[in-house]
Amino acid sequence: MMLHEEKSEQAALDRFDRAILSVLAEDGRISITDLAKRIGLSKSPTQARLRRLEQSGVIIGYRALLDPIQLGLDHVAFVEVRLSDTREAALTAFNAAVAKVPEIEQAHMIAGNFDYLLKVRTRDMARYRAFLGDTISGLPHVAGTSTFVAMEAVKETMLADPA
User: Fold this and answer.
1) Could you tell me the CA-to-CA distances from 99 to 30, 59, 78, 107 in Å, in that order?
2) Residues 22 and 161 sit within 8 Å (Cβ to Cβ)
3) 119 contacts 76 by C-beta, under 8 angstroms
4) Of 105, 102, 138, 134, nearest to 119 (Cα)?
5) CA angle centred on 78, ends 73 and 80, rounded to 5°
6) pLDDT of the chain along its 163 residues, tens only?
7) How far is CA 140 from CA 10, 82, 93, in A?
8) Rg, the chain, Cα only
9) What is the pTM of this model?
């Protein structure tokens, strides 16, 4: 299935589904009973809707949100990556390699003067510099990079309102 076909197969969500997603985006550990109260349904239909949202892939998982500053990972760099080859095989190889690198928090294919924008998180500038030289430059088909260092995160959240 091609990417543009996947986009057209979006799930049909009603107001209760959207309410479930909104509450879970704020508190993924909420009990079914409390979730049902918050959205205005009884427990059984809420649980059935939650299962359907999980099985259909609308909800892809649950996880703890960690504070990167508390973990000493406060160096954030955004990296523009230009590839030497943008044919499908090269893009696939680059995507697969990026997916395996934990320091790369986000990777987006871009329509513009470069091919990808990466969000990279490391402990400090020295580690970033080594990471750039050893890892990013070694990714398949990388022809060049430009780095922009974030001075402060003004807003950094996950999707909270699916409406």
Assistant:
1) 30, 20, 16, 8
2) yes
3) yes
4) 105
5) 150
6) 344 444 446 778 999 999 999 999 989 999 999 999 999 999 999 999 999 999 999 999 998 888 888 888 889 999 999 999 999 999 999 999 999 999 999 999 999 999 999 999 999 999 999 999 999 999 999 999 999 999 988 887 765 555 5
7) 32, 11, 6
8) 20
9) 0.76
* Chain centre distance of CA 91: 18
Q: Which residue has the tokens 């470069």?
A: 114
Angle (nearest 5°) at CA 15 between 14 and 21: 95
Whole-angstrom distance, CA of residue 79 vs CA of residue 53: 34
Separation in Å, CA 62 to CA 21, 28, 150: 12, 7, 28
